[in-house]
Amino acid sequence: MRKVPRTRRGRETLVTIMEAALQEFGEKGFHEGSISEISRRANLAPGGIYNYFDSKDEIFRALVTDINVQFRDQIAAQVRTAADEMTAEKRVLETGINFVRQHKGIYRIVTEAEFIYPEGHRALYEALVERVGNRLRDGALSGEIRPDVGEIHAWAIIGINVMLALRYGVWAADEAPDRVSAVVNDMLKHGLNSRTT
Amino acid sequence: MRKVPRTRRGRETLVTIMEAALQEFGEKGFHEGSISEISRRANLAPGGIYNYFDSKDEIFRALVTDINVQFRDQIAAQVRTAADEMTAEKRVLETGINFVRQHKGIYRIVTEAEFIYPEGHRALYEALVERVGNRLRDGALSGEIRPDVGEIHAWAIIGINVMLALRYGVWAADEAPDRVSAVVNDMLKHGLNSRTT
């Protein structure tokens, strides 16, 4: 279990360790990443990291939890001021693509977590889907969104966001995030059927 | 590089090796999986596997390529007889969830390929997206689907299928695949907006 530092200095060191771990695992992955390299990146004396974490596994798990919180906060700021629920979804996708472009290592860590820390990986997705589901239900209550929305729709939206963050965030930046999110949002609002049919 | 066997017996052994590799990597993942265990599962004499593959890495890569071909063939059979393009998409998702339920190891291998064999992983997704894109364009030409469909829509559909296969195929079988695909298909056709707005 992550040890909670009692001093301000300790808490600052913990932040430094998490940043170093993000770089290390984000670049090399969990298997190639090492505690000694994380210590070096964080400028710690040998063994100092063990005042904070017992193992590489534990650092990785703390990182997945941190990413969950960090990403949630970034999204919350965007969602709060959206005029309606579908505009909120548009902003979430755009924020997600930009977030991944800025922190490519994060995408790798989250995907690898499926094998290294399956409960954390699943918790992250379930937290995302719960928030999307709540927004969809709010939209249904206000009459914006069809009344039969549910969990399957929420998972579908998460799937779109994860894949488009990979394609347009990690693999290639050949489309502007706001165009990607506009195209997807229009599809989500109106569907793919031709309007004449 | 995978060696191509010249005899029928050799080709049969290769099939047996691929099945053993699918079990081994599907259960244990790439890092924990071993060549000696694949040999044992395939009932080969020690060292016999090296008549076919030079390394664990090479077996894994051949497996990703095989999965690509196998899944493509399963889908093709479903798509060929669909009345229209959106019905084809519905069947693809349903087939995908069932496929993953029957072969849970495959999902793991494909996801892990992102790190072990990134080119193969990306080729697999690009092949999927090309086929979805072609179907969408055919639908646009016939007037079924809106004329502005493009690559972003195709990636969005792949994202939905991958996530829902994870959620309703690997994690829990708490919804029937044909219900999941029906809900998604209706969303893809008509969108989430309330019809009265």
Task: Please give the CATH architecture of the domain at 61-190 in chain A.
Answer: Orthogonal Bundle
How many individual β-strands of chain A?
Answer: 0
Rg of Cα set of chain A: 19 Å
The largest contact between protein chains, plus residue counts on each side, is: A-B, 48 and 48 residues
Number of alpha- plus pi-helical segments of chain A: 8
Under the CATH scheme, which class of the domain at 61-190 in chain A? Mainly Alpha
CATH superfamily of the domain at 61-190 in chain A: Tetracycline Repressor, domain 2
| Structural class by sheet pairing and helices of chain A | mainly alpha
Give the termini distance of chain A in whole angstroms.
58 Å
List unreliable stretches of 5+ residues of chain A: none
The succession of helices and strands of chain A, N to C, reads HHHHHHHH
Average pLDDT value of chain A?
92
CATH topology of the domain at 61-190 in chain A: Tetracycline Repressor, domain 2
Oligomer: homodimer
User: β content of chain A, as a range?
Assistant: under 5%
Sketch the major β-sheet of chain A: none
- Assign an overall shape of chain A: elongated
Helix content of chain A: over 70%
